[in-house]
Write a structure and sequence with these properties.
The chain is of the alpha/beta class. Helices cover 43% and strands 13% of the residues. It is built from twelve helices and eight strands. The protein has an eight-stranded parallel β-barrel, surrounded by seven helices. Helix 2 packs across helix 4. The chain starts with 8 loop residues before the first helix and ends with a helix. The relative contact order is 0.11.
């Protein structure tokens, strides 16, 4: 696959077969979508993590379908090559299969997404099966599932014992059997992630699950270090934009207060005269 080719669902199985690692990042607006797309990201995930990094909530639970639709439309406008996946928020797919189809369909029809992602394994297999049957590609998500944060007792490593590891493996198998084209593995032990990745024929996308997955996903704000107070252990910060943005705004504020900005050079009328 050439770097300029549009990334589609069938590409991911071919990438796994060739041993090519899949690059995914979360994205919430057109500007970041354009930048991440041009940087070579394969997947732009409009995550319900927007509830925490955009809306300032403590969990992803308050996010509603209209929120994801809004941000998905923006991301699709900025993406040219990348595959855009929209998260299905809490209670948008758990109530009934019919409601899940309706809501997932809106994310594709109105939001422009190429696929949807939902959390859960064995229990969600009937939903996945129906979505796939009507032509909606589905990315699964097992292990640490943030929409179940209260049931899990917090954002904690999952699969700590043999029984829970067996359940996570069964969940991943059920999602593949139901028709998921890929599965996110979040917050599970490295050996379990390796086992699932080796067993599944569809690619795995890891987050806090070690290096043995077929791809990786990170929240873009975490990757760029935009939250100075929050740094999960599994995150590698490739920049410290939080500090740099704060310092840049502080310089701007100081210049405004000192009467140094704007100068004549930065006047709109001055620019028009030069033009």
């Amino acid at each position: 696959m050439k770097k300029s080719d549009k990334v589609t669902v069938p590409d991911f199985s071919r990438m796994k077969a060739r041993g090519e690692r899949i690059v995914a990042v979360t994205c919430y607006d057109a500007t970041f979508a354009r930048l991440c797309d041009r940087a070579g990201a394969d997947i732009l995930l409009v995550g319900d993590s927007l509830g925490m990094v955009i809306q300032g909530a403590d969990t992803t639970l308050p996010v509603v379908l209209e929120d994801v639709l809004y941000h998905t439309r923006a991301v699709v406008r900025g993406a040219e090559r990348a595959h855009v996946v929209a998260d299905m928020p809490f209670l948008s797919y758990q109530v009934s299969v019919e409601e899940a189809v309706r809501n997932a369909g809106r994310l594709l029809k109105e939001g422009g997404a190429h696929a949807v992602k939902l959390e859960g394994g064995v229990a969600m297999a009937p939903v996945v099966r129906r979505l796939v049957a009507v032509g909606i590609p589905v990315m699964g998500h097992v292990g640490l599932t943030p929409q179940s944060v209260h049931a899990l007792g917090g954002f904690r490593l999952q699969g700590r014992d043999e029984a829970s590891q067996r359940r996570i493996l069964e969940d991943a198998r059920a999602l593949q059997e139901a028709g998921c084209y890929s599965v996110v593995l979040e917050g599970i032990p490295l050996d379990l992630a390796r086992q699932i990745t080796e067993e599944l024929s569809v690619p795995t996308i890891g987050i806090g699950a070690g290096p043995h997955c077929d791809g990786q996903v990170l929240v873009i704000y975490d990757l760029l270090g935009m939250n100075e107070e929050f740094r999960p252990r599994f995150v590698k910060q490739y920049e410290t934009l939080g500090t740099r943005i704060r310092e840049a705004v502080a310089r701007y504020a100081a210049e405004v207060r000192a009467g140094e900005f704007p100068s004549e050079e930065h006047s709109f009328s001055k620019r028009r005269e030069k033009a």
